[in-house]
Write a structure and sequence with these properties.
By secondary structure, this protein is of the alpha+beta class. The chain has helices at residues 29-35, 81-85, 89-92, 116-122; strands at 8-9, 14-19, 22-27, 38-42, 49-50, 55-61, 65-69, 74-79, 101-104.
């Protein structure tokens, strides 16, 4: 299982796992629960330059349509095709097989993101 305390988070309910200058991005279990059953995921193309806080994709569920925001400036170096083919992975394993994109980023940029405690406070104690 992923060490959730090692991740960074955004107010838009995304998690970021940093490995060198590669950031793996997904949505949190809280966001997946709020969305309901995910039925469609649209992700940016590999090679796309993204800017923090801009919409880079879409997640549709039986309840609503949610936007995927870039948590950091960077370039898309990988997308999770398994999630595009089987969107239910976002609900089943949001911190594992349900990851969405990998970005090349400036590692120092994650310093401005939320830690686990701050994210839990943001969600009113929900994990």
């Amino acid at each position: 299982m992923t060490d959730l305390t090692a991740l960074k988070y955004t107010a838009e309910h995304e998690w970021i796992a940093l490995d060198g200058d590669t950031a793996t991005v997904g949505i949190t279990e809280y966001a997946a629960d709020k969305l309901g059953d995910v039925v469609f995921v649209e992700l940016p193309a590999v090679g796309t330059a993204v800017t923090a806080a801009t919409v880079v994709g879409e997640i549709e569920s039986t309840k609503s349509v949610g936007e995927l925001f870039a948590p950091l400036d960077g370039e898309v170096i990988a997308v999770n095709d398994a999630v595009v083919d089987d969107p239910s992975l976002v609900n089943a394993d949001p911190f594992g097989a349900g990851w969405l994109v990998k970005l090349t980023v400036d590692p120092a940029a994650v310093d401005g993101l939320l830690d686990r405690d701050a994210y839990i406070a943001l969600t009113g104690g929900a994990e």
